[in-house]
Every structure is written in C-alpha cells, then in structure tokens.
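anyone seen this seq b4? input:
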Amino acid sequence: MSPHRRARPALLAVVIGAIAACDDGPTATAPSPGDLPPPAALLIPFAPAGNPLPGLSPDQVALFQRGSAVFQIEFAPENGLGPLFNAVGCAACHENPVVGGSGSNDPEEGGEDIEVHATAFHGGVCDNLAAVGGQVQQKQVTPALETALGIVAEPDIPSATARGRRTTPDLFGFGLLDAVPDAQILALADPDDLNHDGISGRVHRTADGRIGRFGRKAQAATLREFNSEAFVMEMGVTSPGNPTEQTGGNPLPVGVDPTPEPEVTQDEFDAADGFVRLLAPPKPLSLDFTGLIGRVVFSNIGCASCHVPALVTGPSSVSAISRKVVPAFTDLLLHDMGPGLTDICLGDAQPSEFRTEPLMGLRFVTAFMHDGRARTIQQAIAAHGGEARRARGRFARLSLFERFALLRFLRSL
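predicted toks r here
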C-alpha cells in the first residue's frame, strides 16, 4: 500500500471535521478519538481578512502591529530601495482587499503586481540564473542607476530558455502553512501514482534536501526564507539574512546605492516576518444549501485530491499556531500541470510543475492561475492540464446546477 493511501483516512477525518466547522463556528466535532490530534487542534484560526490570528498574546499582537508598519513602508533610495526593484514596499503589491492580500494582478496593465521570471533548463537541470540577474527580472530602477547606466529596467537575460509571469499571491494563513509538519506533506505525496488516481504529487526538495512549500514552485522551505527573498528580489532591500543586492554579480556604479547593507535591521525584518506569520486566514462565507452541494461536488470531481481542504499544524511555541486545523486547500506538493502552463523551471521543479495553490481567501482574487491568465474561476479550471485533466473533464461534464453550486462554494472561500 502506498504512503498516499495510508495517510488519506486519518487526514480525511480531520478534513471532514474541519470543513463541517467552517459554517457553524470555530470548533469541530472529532469523528473518532484515534484519528484526530488533541482538541486544541480543532480550533480553526479564522479572523476577518487582514487581522491577526485569534488567541495571540499581547506581545504577539504588538509584534503583528509593528510588522504591519514595516510591511507598509514605502522605501526610497535613501532608506534602501533598489537600485533594481519591482515595487517600493511590500504593501504596494499585497494590498487587495487589505494589507497582506494579493495584488490587483491585471496582466493587461502589466504593473508592479505582475513579475517577470527567467531561468534556463538544460538536460533536465535547472539554472535560476542568479549569477546573471535571475530568477526575478526587476522592472524598475532608481533614478541614480538610470542616470549611470541609461536603463529603465533590468536588461533581458540572453541565456534564459524560458520566461514566465507571476502574480502577487495573498499571504493569508502562511504562518500556519509554515507549521505543517514535513511528515504530513510527505504522507500526501504519491510521486509514482501507486493508487492509480492520476495524481502524482511530489515534494520539492531544495538543494540542501529540505521540503519546499512556499512560492509557485514550492522553492522556499520556510516562510522566513520566502520573506527574506521577497525583500531583496522585489524591493532591492537587503536584510541581515540576505545582505547581497540582486545585480547578477555585477558591481554597482559608485553612488547609486547610498544605503549600506543590510538596509533593514534585524528587528525590522523580524517584525515584518512576524506580521506575515501571524496573519490569519479569512473565515469563509456561510454556505446555503446550494453551496453545501458545491462543496460535495468539489470533492467528487477530484479537486480535493490536490486542493486538500485541511492540514494540521504541529506543536509550536506560538499557541495560536500550535496544533491547529488549517483550511488550506493545498497539499503543498508539486504537480505536473501539462504543456499549456509550462514556463520556467526552479530548483527541483520542472517547467510544467507547480505547487498546488492554497485557496484561503479565494473570493478576493481578481486574476487566477500563477500568471493571471484566467479572469474567472471557470477559466482557471479550464486551464488546468496534466494531472488535473481528469478533474477538468469532470467539471466540463457537470450539469448547469452542479457547476453553479461548485462556483458558489468556491466563491465562499
């Protein structure tokens, strides 16, 4: 029997209890004593969008508030911006519908919320092109760099074999995802499809062997690394944990980067990291009878095979994160999504592989898929290929009422 098969029954018991609680309150009833972790885990840590996790200590609330202030700083060259950057601050992209949410992500506008990534893929080996300015190509430069080099954006990388656009994700519940034990992710993996369901999700192993979980390719193993990379890749702001500007190894002209590295202090970075870590997932809207049917349809057509409705965090020193049910709708695994979505590689992730996107806060999203190509949920489902093609086919064969019910459910998340 595959690990995939062994893990499902216990996890599904958690899922059933967790999802049953979504409409009626913050607690769930344990289906059986042996299947569930201690009762404290049955608390689903919902809060209004943009709010901290419930149950934080006064010190943790203060950290969240300090971090929110750092998150909303608009940087300038005098306090660390650039000289290559995409946005002037975290909240410049993570603003919809509240600070910490997603971006506007309109691919037609091509604004700062849409990034350009470039990598090279040769013989099954991925090069993130960090040595020549990859993987993120910054779309803006400071006035000093423009004057010195006569450029208005980072130049294209000739050695790239693929480029891809990336929308800005929301950050709701990311601290909870960070606390999901590796063993739980491994238990969901079935890389050889031993249960013959057409789903062969696999973990993304980082260069040092850790399990990745953050980023569209699951390239970052921890939330702290993900946040540190965002500071320097998106704003050109260095931190003690990531003190090197993203210049592709090229020395900067004298005077264009007046702020010495690191450009934010450890305390400032820790506060911003704390804000993201303690940001709660928004509580779903209450479901009517049609929405409840849609929730069943979601599972019946196979969406829940990858968008696993709930995960459970492990023990944590932060009680608001410890042993909690996360309404994740992700397995944090890589899946082959077919040739229609193929773009860049990254680390161990092949060009056609993407991590299952969490659906916490889905109702606030305005452009769907990793590159914003879909303007509606229906278009996003139609774009799913590879391992998702069977679920896509089942969706196409739904009755008008079943499809309406499914969309009613998804728009409640």
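The first strand starts at residue 84 and ends at 85. DSSP finds eleven helices and twelve strands in the chain. kinda curious what u guys think
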